[in-house]
Amino acid sequence: MLDNVTQDDAELPGVREKSERDSQRIYGDLKAAILGGSFEAGSRLPTERTLSSRFNAARNTVRKTMNQLVEEGLIVRYVGRGTFVAQTVSGTAAPGADEYSLTELLEARLLFEPSLPDLVVERATPEHIADMEKSLDAMRSAASWHEFKEAKYGLHLAIARGSRNRFIVSIFEQILESRRRAGWGRPGGHPSPVSAVRETAYADNLGIVQALKRGDAPAARTAIRDYLLRTLSNASSG
Fold it and tell me: Where are the domains of the chain?
């Protein structure tokens, strides 16, 4: 069990990398859930044991991540009572958060996202690739438009995490928070993804992940740029 690792074991590169990756995932998912309203202000969060099991992470990794959320004022911890969302956190948006259009977000992503493969190819672990493939599967099997969009943006967040750059990850987390606040809206209000749209998006993103998996940064850059340009074109004409 990871909970029982010794101090010497904790210095092993593989253990450190997993702890860092788990911490980023826990932090990103919990923060997005809090700011997106999935956890309302004042509500109780799952226990460390529950989160440890849910994310397959060591308890000390969960504790360290929760402490970070405490420092940011998003949650409060009470001895003997548990951990709660801070009362000052809005249930629908971060304090002072701006709303961005899909076009604005896509334009911003085009400026930096095609450069991500250089870092991802160099730094991503097999676990990062597995997370990308898991999101791909979720995208293809999505039963609703909301699930489809969660899986699609979740994939690009997984790619960002593969860069192992916290600033880049934070940018993607802000993008997800903005889209969640917008309700993952789809022009025309279709309640579920059209199969052709879903399959096309899956094929495009599969090409990105396959290029990253084989370490082909130039191909991944091209695939990401082409995908974002097509998405931007569709958004602009929708």
Answer: 2-85, 102-237
Cβ proximity of 57 and 2 under 8 Å: yes
User: Of 70, 49, 56, 71, whose CA–CA distance to 23 is shortest?
Assistant: 56
Query: Going by CATH, does the domain composed of 2-85 fall within 3.40.47.10?
Result: no
pTM above 0.85, yes or no: no
Short-list 51, 50, 62, CA closest to 18: 62
The answer to whether residues 59 and 19 touch, using CB atoms and an 8 Å cutoff, is no
Radius of gyration of the chain (CA): 18
Phi and psi at residue 53, in whole multiples of 5°? -70, -40
Instruction: Write out the two tokens for 64.
Output: 């360290």
pLDDT digit string (tens) for 155-193?
999 999 999 999 999 888 888 877 766 665 554 445 556
DSSP state of 2: G
Retrieve residue 63's tokens: 């504790």
